[in-house]
Design goal:
By secondary structure, the protein is of the alpha+beta class. It has twelve helices and seven strands. Strands 3-4-5-7-6 form a five-stranded mixed beta sheet. The protein has a two-stranded antiparallel sheet with strand order 1-2. The longest helix has about 80 residues. It is elongated. About 25% of the residues are buried.
């Protein structure tokens, strides 16, 4: 066996590179599929099993494929079948994902063929296009184009991913397999054009084995990192929901104390009204009733959107804002008939109003403090805007979104992220702008 390995090193290295390329393509498909869709498996750690089976089929039948086009066609068909059978999600999204994946495969194959033909003519490789190292070089270029296309798709479709991944992480992940394929191509070129002794062949086998091990390690670490990012995101959302629950308890406590105070005051009011009635003081009775009616109006619960939970949030934030000398203005239509869950409306409005109240508290001139809330829409969409003054324009991040001005940025900014996550849930849009000292947040939610 040892002698065969050293004698057939060209064929062994070439086939190893082909297998590595096929496995890498399926790993890329696995990562993208699990980024946008949820597996039907009860245990997510087994969601890789269909791709392992597909990799085995592709490797076993590789010699049966007359061309790369046929292999890619079979690979795409099986991947689409896995997507529709093994993953949840709407048919529309699955169709779009299938078309995108086929386009990525087609772009990588045709782009690599075109670019490699141009490069081959430039460096004089035209007469040896069937050489093994030329085929590996073309395959490496195709995989490289596939990686770039996949990264671009993932970045532009980031809002639909379960766990958003940064460009730097994508680049770090796919740099290793690209270097590995390039290394395989260089080794193959050396084997095809220069004499190789047993010692050099052994060194090549060892280095190739090490590269494959590094690739396995990188992808395992990438999977662990994505799990941690998903856990961190879930923890963040749970923390936000816990904060919402705590605020709800505080609001209920405030309303309870206000009701107790109102009941206590009403007893005194009734006693005074009885005294005035017994004395026959009609004018005093009328005046007291007028004053009492005004007091009730000032502290009464205001119906704003028609949704009790949402109105409770708006009323409580209105009281909180007014206690800090902030003028509030609500211009909202009845939202009872829209398809947005009340809890999601509460998440958006409570976080937006908390940010608006905090921003107002930084405005020294109390006469400039205000909050304007507008909400309109129908059964198909809902648009909400919240405006407040600001003395300094907030900074924007790399994506053009405003970020927190607090020193510990990692521990803050959850409000906007919670709003963005909720907006993405309804495939909506979020816009933030700061003009003439007024900051405005606008969100659009699409009905189900």
């Amino acid at each position: 066996m040892h002698i065969d390995l050293l004698r057939d090193y060209k064929e062994i290295l070439f086939n190893t590179a082909l297998i590595f390329s096929s496995v890498f393509e399926l790993v890329l498909a696995y990562i993208m599929t699990n980024s946008f869709f949820t597996s039907r498996f009860r245990r997510s750690r087994f969601d890789y099993l269909p791709f392992v089976g597909l990799a085995a089929v592709i490797i076993l039948l590789r010699d049966s494929f007359p061309s790369e086009f046929v292999r890619y066609s079979v690979e795409c068909a099986l991947l689409i079948a896995i997507l529709f059978l093994m993953y949840t999600g709407s048919v529309r999204r699955k169709v779009i994902a299938s078309v995108v994946f086929v386009m990525i495969i087609a772009l990588s194959e045709t782009g690599a063929g075109f670019l490699f033909s141009v490069v081959s003519r430039a460096v004089g490789f035209e007469g040896s296009m069937d050489a093994s190292y030329i085929r590996l070089g073309k395959l490496t270029l195709a995989n490289g184009i596939m990686i770039v296309a996949a990264v671009i798709v993932s970045i532009f479709a980031k809002r639909y991913t379960k766990v958003p991944t940064s460009f730097r992480l994508w680049a770090a992940l796919f740099f290793v397999p690209v270097v590995t394929l390039v290394t395989f191509s260089v080794y193959q070129y050396y084997f095809e054009n220069y004499p190789v002794d047993d010692k050099i062949a052994a060194y090549v086998y060892v280095s190739c084995t090490g590269l494959i091990f590094i690739n396995i390690l990188v992808f395992v670490l990438f999977g662990k990192l994505r799990d941690q990012l998903a856990l961190a995101r879930g923890t963040e959302m749970l923390s936000s929901l816990l904060t919402q629950q705590e605020n709800s308890v505080k609001r209920l406590e405030t309303l309870y104390n206000r009701t107790r105070s109102f009941r206590h005051d009403m007893k005194n009011h009734i006693l005074l009204l009885n005294m005035l009635a017994e004395k026959g003081d009609t004018e005093g009775l009328k005046k007291y009733l007028r004053d009492l009616g005004g007091a009730v109006d000032e502290s009464d619960y205001v119906r704003i959107t028609g949704i009790s939970a949402v109105d409770a949030i708006l009323n409580e934030k209105m009281y909180e804002a007014q206690s800090k000398d902030i003028t509030t203005s609500y211009n909202c239509v009845n939202l009872e008939k829209n398809d947005i869950l009340p809890i999601d409306l509460c998440i958006i409005l409570s976080n937006a109003l908390d940010n608006a109240i905090e921003a107002n508290s930084l405005v020294e001139d109390k006469t400039r403090r205000f909050i304007k809330v507008k909400a309109h829409g129908n059964e198909t969409f809902t648009v909400i805007s919240v405006s407040n003054p600001t003395d300094s324009e907030p900074k924007k991040n790399a994506k053009g979104l405003y970020e927190t001005s607090k020193a510990d940025a990692d521990s803050h900014g959850f409000g906007l992220r919670s709003i963005e996550s909720t907006v993405n849930k309804y495939h909506g849009e979020m816009l933030m702008k700061c003009e003439d000292g007024v900051f405005t947040l606008v969100v659009r939610l699409n009905g189900v």
